[in-house]
TrEMBL record:
Places the protein is found: Nucleus
Sequence similarity: Belongs to the SAAL1 family.
UniProt GO cellular component terms: nucleoplasm
Protein's name according to its UniProt entry: Serum amyloid A like 1
Record-level GO BP terms: positive regulation of synoviocyte proliferation
Span list, region Disordered: 1-30, 50-74
Length: 525
């Protein structure tokens, strides 16, 4: 049994939660790092999932005119690839998994776990070539998916399994082939079982294949239903998120979960309520015999912690998954009714907002880059604050820096708005219309709305002591209060009025100055 991300050694069954190194180097595709794609973009990214095209290593075409004419009939579609050569490679692949090559009398140590160099080079070429639609159609006509099914069932070589899943992933980028693969129930079940594999590259290619299929509207529901009927998928994905240190794998698995939750709320609810039921399908030989009792929220948090430093896009993915959980009451309860009462979730998100994202030494334009992840984080914090006002971790004396951070986000958005307005004045009318500078950024508007809602709720909870502490520590001052009032009024007038009354007790001068700037407050006193 092989640990996640490892290509050698045994994996003790009772130590399956141990973290192991991530993907090793090798002939992998650099484009596999592409993330947060959807629809046709996912297909484009997945189609690059080969080990790197090496045209010079393919068989050279014949040189004579007669042979050239003969070779043209041997070409796959409009390509220069040879049908005969592809046939020979697939035939060799069949031989690799034939009974003669898998003697039942061999011990586990004697079973071939590594590919011969020549075979690996050839099958990697096929992986590269499968990015071409003509080659993909040829492989489909030659029943390559059935051959790969045999590989999954009989091969003990992780590298071969990885390559075959990768080829299927490339083939699935083309709509008709994706439909054929998706409708094959046996193949679909076998591919889902690959999520229980212990080989990290295989898991990565399987996740990429699933994301490609889920991103095609014509087949997405087939996979959602299939996954819903296989509880083992939940266990395997939770195991990866809680146990892998492979950032690339964690990001891709996160994208799969994000897509699933976005497509089907019922499936999300099932996973929220899931208590790690036993797998209904046959597990792979190298999967753990027994998995721990997983809960979705702790697994998401563990994965987010792993990707936060190395992959901003990955962090965005996991924060969006948490935000999707808060769109249903059961999801909010899963967060705040965890054994620690939601403290770990709050602490992670608080740390991200106060110490990592949109910091004082960042240029204001940073809010444009971080707007989606900030919106997700603040949305979760807002839901938690509204539902857990009695928890110690949401007490205002512990969260004055968060108020300062929320106001800084609003200040940065104001600055970005001014820059956009200035640019629009300098641009020609048609250029302004094309660039969209005359319209408020949709995502920035969402961020502003979420930020204001959380800030208004927090301001209403401040005591005189809290405000004095905030003034002393620099989280509050006249400029920041003015920015907050400007963004909160008139929608959150009640919250501003309540804060202003308490502020008058803490700092009469500051309250009077703000009253002069915002006459509506004076009319109510």
């Amino acid at each position: 049994m092989r640990a996640l991300g490892s290509h050698s050694g045994n994996w003790p069954r009772r130590e399956v939660r141990m973290r192991t190194p991530g993907l090793d180097s090798g002939c992998r595709n650099p484009a596999s790092a592409r993330i947060r794609t959807s629809g046709s973009d996912v297909c484009s990214a997945a189609c690059a999932a080969g080990p790197g095209l090496r045209m010079d290593r393919n068989p050279s075409p014949p040189s004579s005119e007669a042979e050239d004419e003969e070779a043209s009939g041997d070409a796959v579609g409009d390509t220069v690839y040879s049908k005969h050569w592809l046939f020979s490679v697939l035939t060799k692949l069949i031989e690799v998994i034939s009974p003669e090559k898998s003697d039942l009398n061999l011990s586990n140590e004697e079973i071939q776990t590594e590919l011969e160099e020549e075979m690996e080079n050839d099958i990697c070429k096929v992986w590269d070539m499968s990015m071409d639609e003509g080659v993909a159609l040829f492989l489909q006509e030659f029943n390559a998916p059935d051959i790969f099914m045999g590989v999954f069932a009989k091969s003990k070589c992780p590298r071969l399994t990885e390559i075959c899943v990768g080829i299927l992933g490339n083939m699935a980028c083309f709509q008709d082939i994706c439909m054929s693969i998706s409708k094959d129930e046996n193949l679909g079940q076998v591919l889902l079982q690959r999520l229980c594999d212990s080989d990290s590259p295989t898991l990565l290619e399987t996740s990429r294949l699933l994301l490609t299929c889920l991103s095609q509207p014509d087949v997405a529901n087939i996979w959602v239903e299939r996954i819903r009927e296989n509880p083992s998928v939940y266990d395997c994905i939770c195991f990866i998120m809680s146990s892998s240190t492979n950032v690339e794998l964690l990001v891709k698995v996160g994208e799969v979960v994000d897509k699933l939750f976005d497509l089907d709320e019922d499936l999300m609810l099932n996973w929220i309520k899931n208590c790690s039921r036993q797998s209904v399908g046959q597990s792979t030989d190298d999967s753990p015999e027994e998995l721990p009792d997983f809960k979705i929220v702790p697994c998401l948090l563990e994965a987010a912690k792993q990707v936060r430093s190395d992959s901003p896009e990955g962090l965005d993915v996991y924060m969006h998954i948490l935000q999707l959980l808060t769109t249903v009451d059961e999801g909010i309860q899963a967060i705040v009714q965890s054994p620690d009462g939601g403290k770990e979730t709050w602490s992670l998100l608080y740390d991200l907002v106060c110490h990592e994202l949109c910091q004082p030494d960042d240029p204001p334009i940073i809010v444009q880059e971080q707007k989606t992840v900030l919106a997700s984080i603040l949305s979760v914090l807002s839901a938690m604050f509204a539902s857990q006002t009695e928890q110690e971790y949401v007490k205002m004396r512990k969260n004055m820096p968060l108020i300062g951070s929320l106001i800084r986000v609003l200040q940065y958005m104001e600055d970005c708005g001014k820059r956009s307005l200035d640019n629009s004045k300098e641009s020609k009318p048609d250029e302004t219309e094309k660039s969209g500078l005359t319209q408020e950024d949709f995502h920035l508007k969402i961020l502003k709305d979420i930020c204001c809602e959380l800030l208004s709720n927090m301001l209403q909870e401040l005591t005189k002591e809290n405000i004095l502490e905030g003034l002393n520590q620099g989280h509050l001052n006249e400029q920041k209060c003015s920015c907050a009032f400007k963004n909160l009024l008139p929608l959150y007038f009640t919250a501003v009025e309540s804060f202003h009354e308490v502020l008058r007790e803490a700092d009469q001068t500051l309250a009077d100055n703000l009253e002069k700037c915002f006459p509506s407050l004076r009319l109510q006193t």
